[in-house]
Design a protein that fits this description.
Layout lengths: L1 E5 L3 E6 L8 E9 L3 E7 L4 E5 L8 E5 L9 E10 L7 E6 L23
Antiparallel strand pairs: 1-2, 2-7, 3-6, 3-8, 4-5, 4-7
Length: 119
């Protein structure tokens, strides 16, 4: 991501992706954390508020953003309340359904002679 803004409690993430989202099945924002008590993720079309205490031994916060991602570039803001860590970069992981790009055609090979090359 491109982090365009940064402060002690706010961070802005900006993601670019130049392909189609037609086969997108899951989008996950992953953020390395130590201890945060409240996180707010907001954009013009969505607002997510996470209120929970995170334990120190849990270093990865994974947030499902699938239902919120409709187009790119994607820009959203994260606000941390009661933070007890130094920031590090998060990343967005996109999972796509595999499409069949190779068509397998079956041929009747019984009509070919032994000396014919079949490709």
């Amino acid at each position: 991501p491109n982090q365009s803004k940064y402060s002690l409690t706010n961070m802005t993430y900006y993601f670019e992706y130049n392909e189609t989202l037609e086969y997108l099945i899951y989008a996950e924002f992953i953020l390395p954390i130590h201890q945060i008590s409240k996180i707010q993720i907001f954009f013009s079309t969505f607002n997510i508020l996470l209120n929970q205490t995170f334990k120190k031994d849990q270093y990865w916060l994974k947030i499902n953003l699938t239902q919120y991602i409709r187009s790119f570039p994607l820009k959203f803001h994260i606000k941390f309340n009661y933070i007890k860590q130094k920031f590090s970069s998060g990343f967005l992981t996109l999972y796509f359904r595999r499409t069949s790009t190779h068509l397998i055609s079956r041929r009747d090979l019984s009509s070919f002679y032994d000396n014919q090359l079949i490709t």
